[in-house]
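Backbones bend. Our protein:
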Amino acid sequence: MADLPGFSLSESSATWPSGGVNDGKRPPLPTSFRPEKRGRAANDADPSSSISSSSSSAAMALGGPASPSGGPGGPGSASNLPHLASWKSTTSSTDGDVNTGTYTRVHLKVKAQSRLGETVHCSGSSFVMGHFNPNESMTLVTTPEDYPYWTTVKPMILPRGVPHQYMYALFSGGVFSSWEQIECERVLVPEGREMVVVEHYGDYDQDMELVATGERIDRSLVYERRQDETAAPPTPNAAEAVAMEQETGDDVARDAAARLAARVAQDKDEADPKSPRSSVTGTPTQRFRQTNKLQSRYKRYMPSSYHPSPDAMLFLVCYHLPVKLTKSADDGSWSVEWNRDSLISRSENSIAESMNTTWVGCVTYHARSDQEELSEDDKSEITVILADMNCIPVFIDRQLAANHHGGYCKSKLWPMFHNVDILDIYYAIWDRAEVIEWKEERNNGEWWDAYQKVNRLLADRVGELCKENDTVWVHDYHLLLFPSYLANTCRTENRKRPKMVFFLHVPFPTSEVFRELSHGTQLLEGVLDVDIVGFHSFDHARHFLNACKRFLGLTYQSRRGGNLGVDYRGRNVIITISHVGIETTLIREVIESPEVQEMARKLREKHAGKVLIAGVDVCQRLSGIPLKMLAFEQFFSNCPSWKDKLVFVERATLTQTRLGDQNYSSNEIRKLVDRITKAHGPECIDYEESSSPLTIEERLALWLASDILMVTSIREGLNLKPLEFVFAKGINPSNRPGVVILSEFSACCCVLNGAVRVNPWNITGLVNSLDHALTMSDEERLGRRARDLPYITNQPAANWTKQVLSVLHEATDNAEGDEEYTNMEYMDMEIGRSHVMRVGDRSDFKQLNIDKVMEAYMQSKRRVFLLDYGGTIIARENISMYVKKDFTAVTGKRPSPRMMDALTHLTKDPRNTVFVVSGVTKSDLTASLGHIRGLGLVSDNGALYSWARSIDIDNAGDVTMQDDSNPSDRHWHQHSFKFDWRPVREAVDPILKVYCTRTNGSVLRYAQQSIAWNFRSTDPEWGLLQANSLQNDLEEVIRDLPVNVIRKKGLLEIVPEGLNKGVVARQILTQDASISHGHPDFLFCIGDDTTDESMFKAIYDYYAERTEESVHGRAGNGTFEDFLASGDEGPLHHVFTCTVGKKPSNAHLYVNNVDEVEQLLQALGKTSDPTEEESPTKC
């Protein structure tokens, strides 16, 4: 017999000596690894002992007492139980081995004196015991006849021979009260098929042994905790604790009926919606109010629900007023129109339609060719014209504008905010330019003075106009100091400042680059004087938060609703992440105009019969145009057949700022164009430069004519061109969808899930992506467009403005401000011992041993396999990756040929029943695996299932469905329950839509039997934070609805109660037993996600019920001793539960990855399939 694990407070490899419960006693711990017994003289201690006489002191020396979980604790945690000495298994050698798949049905019976309203619970290291989490603990029950003995309602299914730690606890009124006061956790080593453990509450130490009494309860062997006769007597404290628990017999008799009646009444109250609840759950009325409060909060976040105060004014402040000024050459008069390419210009359905709005900014444009300033008459005329458009101009002279915009903004802030190091700005070879004076450090003082002055001029102008109930929205890096200047003005005048928002439209640099700014701290403090700081990407917000922490010592926390908050000068500044959309109404009108249609037709005719790849960029190094050219050149070299079929249409804008960078980039690009056209033909590249940006008409005509848009920016903030391209190509559904090749360094990469994401520095990867885009099937093109078009269509810029403002007004609402703050990750610190499971802490969780599974497989006669799909038989991309290369996680993928081969061989064995259980749709699962005739399929998390084609199940409770692709072959069954989604959607839709808008890359999907929020394509850190917050909010609003929130990898899914993989697993096992006239003796279940945990639990419950039927049924035909002596394990002799990946799970085995799953199934398949056996030699 192999050794049982030893227990030690050190990391030594001590083990118990061999032994078990066959002789009725567990062997004691080796002397050298037993704490000194209390009451023994110090000189009696074993000198070889490595543990001090005080076990608690030894634990404290190792960092304090800890639960087996090693996790943090609350009031009931081990860290708050100083008397508790935790033991840790230090060896893997054991009589029991989870790799054998054998289990024991264990009942607990504990004697506990309880007070009125108290109940006894049990929690321990196994998942069935709740992992030492009182919320997941088992409730024990009693009756007037049995009291003071409490027993488990149903047996625990524990791996045989594997040690388990556990403790009892008292609950009062359904709320955790206290753990039992014992000096170390109880240890149980399950043996045999069934056992009953009898013990006393609050009476246990490491010297107690589990002794077989020879008695039976309901034919189960009884084991009792008894004190080792050689052990020292209990300590006075322990004896006093036991004595305090004792009551007289008369007291027990008198109170037994009262206690039982109170517990029955309590159960009835919990079922009564009118009854009061505990302090944790609250009353039904309280819960209803909280739910309504949460729903109304999120409804206010919806754009359609935003209704500003009629007397409030919104000031949109930016450096450049969003207008175009033109001076007539004939009479010198001025005309003005809105700049339709500006993010904040007035448009149809904009915020200006529902709220008094005023634009404030600088006017630096004029039509004169000389160096004269605008005349006073010009300024007066412009002011009057702009007043009709609710625009207030601030005029600054040429030199001030040059130092502010051309100097500090464009020559210093702009490159550094794009993470260009200051050494590169001043000394990099690519930036050697003629206009060297802009780069001289001696100008830095003038630039900074100009930057401050412009910010102050605008702040003073707004300060003259704004009132307390107004809102001021400041845009971009030109005005980082504006908020602090305006706030200081209001403080000086002893009046409350207006609400303020600051939104940054360029990236925020890393702290290493930001620290090189000599005035960086002042810029941070300037921004933080607002109520909301907004970013288009979490990556940008993360850098901002890091700078706040490193240079100002500020920390951040999450707020209810998915935003973040930074405490600054007594205020909580909200950090929001929300990517702006495009003006779809305007774009649709422009695209449908005859002018644009004609321009697109001419461009097509110019390059007739060729595929057009479009690019529109600013002529600068960070746009990555040369990388695009190099990839194009390499593609033609690799694929010369495309020379006459492909043309690259690139339009570069010369902005006349940062002239050194612009001139160098232009020269470099032209040299590359000349080299490529000489080698591959003059018509393969259509390159043009313009001194002004393309008009919206020119840009949209290019999108209509092109097939692919290629963006290879090295670093980039807001860029709406890819969104325009997708929308333009999707207006007419009959048109072939376009493909976007998008740099992972662009901010819009986080919102376009259908784009082909690339690293522009990887030229080979860029070439491969170009090849993929050119050869992409229409089906994939449509799928990619379907990913992005709904988001683009439903998130216009007007909605984005209203959403940010609704967050602002909600945050500044004092009535609810105190309830906004939440922890980064939810943990109920009010209840007991929080458990963080670590695989190293579990002796019942081991790596799968193929040899042992093979041995059990070959010994068995009937087998059932339940296999998860995505992540188990199909590999999927790691959700923690920042940039996801795969278009989909699972949908549309196929298992590898080796996995297909393994499944085929397994299903050929008539002794095997094999099912693949998945959450994907029926059509996707059928397309992938439907051709394997002997394979059963389950889709939609159990809503639909199909047996192997050779089996036809017709259940009275099911609706039979045929596969449309082959009606005669495979039949599908659907659960017949009906579910009304209307109240669920009314509760969750406002919340889900708000989280979609706040979490770039997330997608909301409605299916027949579920609602899913997919955050797989989001920034991994931000997506996880948002998912935690959303799950808490959803669980709060649906607590009275018959649905559950299920957490998957990259997905939150709302499904009806009773619809999960566990339900269908149980149904498969039941129907299989009916078909085969008996239960299998081998069961193997494997999965990788949280939804698979329900399968594991269902299997344990099924095992408990079926083995009880078998044991008791067979014993009825003879003596129980005869059955025990027979050695017949009966049905479900070997049960294997396995997870993919080493992580906390209800399974007892794990494999590392899909490759190991494939290796296992191949080995089993070859053993099963008779065609794999060597055929006899023919004579």
